[in-house]
Write a structure and sequence with these properties.
Blueprint lengths: L1 H13 L3 H7 L12 H9 L13 H13 L4 E5 L5 H6 L6 E6 L2 H10 L9 E4 L11 E7 L8 H9 L2 E12 L2 H13 L2 E8 L5 E7 L4
Parallel strand pairs: 1-2, 1-4, 2-3, 4-5
Antiparallel strand pairs: 5-7, 6-7
Helix pairs in contact: 1-2, 2-8, 3-6
Bound molecules: S-adenosylmethionine.
Amino acid sequence: MGYFRMRRVIELAALDRPWVGEMFMRKRFAPPIETNAEEWNDHYAGSTYDRLFKSDQRHHHRLLASLVNEHRPHAKVLEIGCGEGAFYASLKAFAPAGYHGVDFSDTGVEAARRRFPSDLQGHPTFAVGDGRTYEPEDKFDAIVFPECIEYLGEPVDLLRRYSSSLHPDGVFGVSMWLNTKPLRIWRKLQASCEILDEAVVAAPWGGAWLVTVCKPPK
Ligand SMILES: C[S@@+](CC[C@H](N)C(=O)[O-])C[C@H]1O[C@@H](n2cnc3c(N)ncnc32)[C@H](O)[C@@H]1O
């Protein structure tokens, strides 16, 4: 717990002092996080990530959903890396015009479909797909990456690719666990996109997330 608290002090100090984050970053020169669908299938089959539905784990979902709704009321939303639908659980309170969730874990997608069956209008929908290469068939008012963008490669290239699936004036939404490596991603977004809103959400137990809503990269 003491170590966890010390890391959090470093991460908060790194928010406006990038050099602090770089100095205390673990595995600074290691490649970005590698993951695969089998690993996530195991997590979801073992219920490890049921915790994402706990109230004190969802403050960043609630904030991201409300900011997306503020900028694009009742938006049609695409979520990349939807898992079992924990972000949708917060978004649905805002009566989105539509929602499509995509994840490369078929176990996660099946669980999301069980939790959130489609209504008479056919929403929400969930599909298996790899967010690094997924080609949406539709256009959306908002495309969100809650706790997922860190797995999808170069973030600005990723948003550029997904920009063609946004309606004019569409927005991107991102949330990330507050850590020194995700702060690098946050800075890249700040340097390339017009940021409409950004915040750090902290829970009393010490967990914290970065939340951003931005326009497509220039
Ligand atoms: C920490 S979970 C977040 C789930 C959900 N977005 C949330 O906020 O509750 C990360 C999710 O990203 C998904 N993911 C990771 N890499 C992916 C990829 N290349 N394509 C699609 N989904 C991916 C995982 O399967 C997992 O469901």
